Each structure stands twice: as structure tokens, then as C-alpha cells.
Amino acid sequence: MKYLNAFPVILVLCCITVTATGQTTVVDTTPSDSLNPQGIYEDLLRSAFRDGTIDENERYLLRSLQSSLRLPDSFVTRLENDIIRNQPDRLDQSGRWPVVLQNIAIGSGLYGWTVPFVLDAEDPKWYIGTEMLSIGGAFYLTYQYTKNMNIPYSRAQMMRGGTLLGLRYGWLINDVLDLWPPDIDIEEENSKGWAVTLMTSVPAGLWAGDYLYKRWKPSHGQSWALTLWGELGGFTARNLHQMAAGIESKPDRSEYEHYDYMSGDWILDRTAYNKALEPYKDWKRVNALIEMAGYPLGIYLEHRYFGDRHYTFGDALMLYQGRFFGWIYGMLTAEIADIDFDSPAGIGFRTAGSIGGTLLMGRYIADEDWSFGESVLMVVGTGSGMAFGVGSAALMDISEGDIISAMVMAGGAGGFFLTRSILDISKDGTYSSLESRKSFDVIPSFSVVPVRDGNNRTVFQSMVQAEILF
Predict the structure, then answer these.
(1) Which letter does DSSP use for residue 68 in this model?
(2) Residue 47: which domain range?
(3) Nearest to 332 by CA among 239, 418, 419, 407
């Protein structure tokens, strides 16, 4: 039985007390104006949070009490966040398996071939052997490292996002420092600095993501929202630079080559090619620095302005949907306006669509808690609506790009709101909990079933069944 059901009894006990003889004595009650409404609300809220969550009935009673006590929303939000973040930590390893799989993938995909490359091990056996050792080593080291670690899904996502961002930073550092192998004479140069940078940036990014988790303690949904806004910050910063400075294209090497009939080979004018390559390298260096500044800025802005929101994993997927479809709608709008894709205006439409779509979706789901399955249905519904728009244009023999784009946009909006109309979404706070909410579970089971064969003999038939919950 939930604790809020005893609220009327608590109010009565505030006015009376029972003596040791069992007689009831009325106590002098203080004027109601001198009671502490915030203390009353906090006591009941902490009682409701003892089981780690607040159901719809408790949320309704709490909101009624908040209205009766005339408490501002800012106080309630701040109090709930404080209670959630200061609940005693329990060992939660629900996110352990994604971290193990992530490190295996990165270990085999990056270290498996960069290690022998850096060590000049040219024999193919070293690449095969190192690849296998990377898979086994990544599993064992990660398994031991996380053995006694409290690692819910939210921490796993912060570590995963930090790892991928670290890899991206390594790539951008190579652009800034011009560490990539040169376009000519790669065999002679045999540059290795870029590989070392990538290998170093991955663990640095993992540490940074884990550091932010320990400092902010985001929920599962909040961890995904932080990752989203980090990506959006880098995307926006890069696009703003391209809108202001334009997009530089790498010079075509073939334009600086000529065929030598005497030798029968193509000869490259290295001096002219390198001279043409320098402006592109300078542009790429500035673009990389600006993009690097955008990632932490996006993460900070999300934490600063949206860090107090109770995002579930489904809420985060809805934000990703807003960002993705916002980008598509920005591109389609530019198509309707006959704007070139790589022009400053075209880049601006896609950037505005991405930011606007994320912000509008965040506002749209502000008072709701979405589950994983509900958010997936919304993606499917919106995508189906867009496909309906394309199919309708094909059946009506419409070939104009602007009309098709308009029909796709209308179909997507129709699919979105039609799908929403058939879903009963829970109110905000229903899924609020310090623990991670699993996106899905796969429960395998094995059984042996006795059956009769054609000769009326009893045989045993094995069966494997997998139950999927989401």
C-alpha cells in the first residue's frame, strides 16, 4: 500500500496525541499560517519515493497537495531532483553488457589493426593474431574492470557516447595537426601519428563520459539527451562556419597530372598540387577547431536548460526523432524553395530544422513519459506517412520535386499525429526513478518436450524459445 493513502491520518495525528493510558488528549494547534507547507510536501514526497518510483495515483495526489499548499513548480522540480540524486546507490549492472560489447567492437575495429601498423609488423599473421587478441583482451579487461562497478544503462550510455566522441576528437585533432598520411608517396612517408592519436582519444573519451556521469548522475533518458545535444552542438558549429566561410573542396589531383609519352607514366606536378592543397587544409583545420568547440557547448546547454527534466529512454528517442525529422524537413523546405543543398541557405535550413525539431519535440513531450515501444511506433508512423506521400505522388504521376517534397512533409505530419492519437501516453513522472529503465529484454529458454513418433515410441524433441519484451 502506498504511503500517500495515509495522508488524512497524518493530518489528524498532527492535531491529537495518544497518551500511555490510551486516552486521547487534544493538543493546542498552531495557526495554519505558521505551518511549513514545504516541509509537509517534502515529507510526503520522500515517503512516496521509498519504492524508487511514483505511480499515477501518487502523482495525482501530490499535484493536488501542491495546488492546495500553493507551492511553485520550480520548488517541486528542484526537490524531486534532489531526492532522486541523493538516494543511496545500489549496485546496478544492467548497463554492463553494452559496455563489454562496445569495447569488443572498438578493440577489434581499431586496435586490432592499428597496433601492428604502428609497430611495423608487416606480416599478415600479426594483423590476424592482434585482431583475435583484441577481441579476447577487450572482453576480459572490460569484464574485470566492471565486475564490481555500479553501471546502470545511463552510465553505459555516457561511457559509450564519450568513447565515440573521443574517436571523433581524435579524427579532428588529426585534421588540425595535419597528421593524416599525405596524398602522395604514402609508402615513403609511412606516417603513424594519426593512428596513435585515434588510439589515445578513445580511452580519453570514455574517461570524460564517465566523469560527467559521476558529476551529474543523469537518468537513462538524460544520458541519451546529453549525447544528442553534444552531437547537435558539433553539427551546428560546423555548419555555422561553413555558412560564413563557404565549403572548400579538395583539389582534384588529376588536374595537376600529365601523361609523359617518353616514360609512359602519369607525372604529378607536386609543387602546384601542394600549393593548391594548402587553402583546403587551412579551411579544414579551422572547421575542425570550431566543431571541437561545439560538442562540449551543446552538452553544457542541455544540462543547463534541460537537465532537470525527467527524460525516460522513450523520451530521448522522441528527441532523436525530432532532430532527425527536423533535418529532413529543413532539407525538403530548401527543396521547395529551390535552394542548392550546399549553399549557405541550404545549410541554414538543415541546421534550423535540426535545432527547431529537437526543441519542438522536447516541448511536445514535456508533460509526458514515453516508453520505448511507444516512441518506436511514432517513428514508424511518421516514416509511413512520408512513404504514403511519396506513393501518392507516384500514383498521380507527379514529377515536380517541390510538390513531392510538400506531399512528403504533409504525409509525415499526418502519420505523426495519427499515430499519436491512438496512443495513451503516461503522464510525466510516472517512470521517474534513479534506476535505469530497460529499453527491451530478450529472455531465451530451452526445453525438451516428449512426443510420440510414427512408430508410437516416445521421443524427446528439443525446443528453443525467445521472449522479447519492450
Answers:
(1) H
(2) 3-85
(3) 407
- Find the helix or strand (DSSP H, E) in which 426 lies: strand 426-427
In terms of phi and psi (left: phi > 0; alpha: psi -120 to 50; beta: otherwise), the region of 218 is beta
Task: Judge contact between 415 and 382, C-beta under 8 A.
Answer: yes
On the 0-12 / 13-18 / 19+ scale of CB atoms within 10 A, 125 is exposed
Is there a contact between 108 and 137 (Cβ–Cβ < 8 Å)?
Answer: no
3-state secondary structure of 437: coil
Q: Does residue 466 register a pLDDT over 70?
A: no
Cell triple for 458: 516416445
State the Cα angle at 17 between 11 and 22, rounded to 5°.
135
Q: Is 25 within a domain?
A: yes
398 within some domain: no
**Percentage above 70 pLDDT, the chain:** 80
Report yes or no on 147 lying in a domain: no
Helix (H) or strand (E) run with residue 369 in it: strand 368-369
* Residues 440/372, Cβ–Cβ less than 8 Å: yes
d(Cα 334, Cα 338) in Å, to the nearest integer?
6
pLDDT at 436 over 50: no
Beta strands in 175-330 (DSSP E): 257-260, 265-268
85's CB contacts (< 8 A; 6+ apart) are 217, 434
Q: Which cell numbers in the block locate residue 380? A: 514508424
* C-beta pairs of 324-328 under 8 Å, 24+ apart in sequence: 324/357, 325/357, 325/382, 325/412, 326/353, 326/354, 326/355, 326/356, 326/357, 326/358, 326/360, 326/361, 327/353, 327/354, 327/357, 328/353, 328/386, 328/412
Separation between Cα atoms, residue 219 and residue 204, nearest integer Å: 23
Answer yes or no: is pLDDT of 24 > 80.
no
CB neighbour class for 138 (10 Å; exposed up to 12, middle 13-18, buried from 19): buried
Q: For the chain, what is the domain count?
A: 1
pLDDT per residue as tens digits for the range 327-372: 999 999 999 999 998 899 999 999 999 999 999 999 999 988 898 9
Specify if 11 maps to a domain. yes
Can you give the length of the chain in residues? 470
The H or E element that residue 231 is part of is: helix 220-245
Cβ-Cβ contacts under 8 Å for 207 (sequence gap 6 or more)? 162
Residue 203 CA: distances (Å) to CA of 161, 231, 295: 12, 19, 17
